[in-house]
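Notebook entry, structure prediction.
Reason for the run: the old model in the group folder had no record of what sequence produced it. Starting over properly, with the input documented here first.
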Amino acid sequence: MHVFNRRFSEANPVWWHKLIRDWTKTDYAFFSVFTWILVFSLLVLMRLIEGRTLDLVFASVFSFVMIPFELVVVAAFQKYSSNTTDISSYPALSPNDFEEDKLLKKDKSLVFFYAEWCPLCRKSFHLLKSLDGSQSKVFRVDLSDENNPLWDSLKIKVVPTLVAFKDGKEFWRANGISMVGLREKDFKQAVIAAS
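New structure, fully documented this time:
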């Protein structure tokens, strides 16, 4: 499930995202060789187990043809994964900022809740720039830590989530949709709500 649901957090594979989001050309080359060897070995093993004759030409060609398909999957993943440096210009908030007499008690604020490992959160990073035209201050909160108290205190069920506050009280919210995340129209509505 790409939109992070807290109930399934224990099964969430964070490591694979960190592994391939910053691949280099060398990493792609190693991946291609590894994929070719793996698919070739599996094809040879299956032929031997089934008692068929060993067709090395077929196994070589078939395993070589599989490499571009696997590289397309990795490339697509990287295309839709921005780095957190894309939103580093927005001030980060901590749980203390949501307590009494803190930052959000003044005027209107828009807060973007995300997790660093969430691909759909990363897909939304470039949409944050559309909030720059609003009259509200824009902040970000990283909820990558499962024990962050904001999950419970603000009743956040999924990331990404965009919340508008006025004088410290929430008055508008957009939750990410499963397999979609936040849409451009959610950010447009946030600008209208915060005006």
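Summary: The two ends are 33 Å apart (CA to CA).
The old model has been moved to the deprecated folder.
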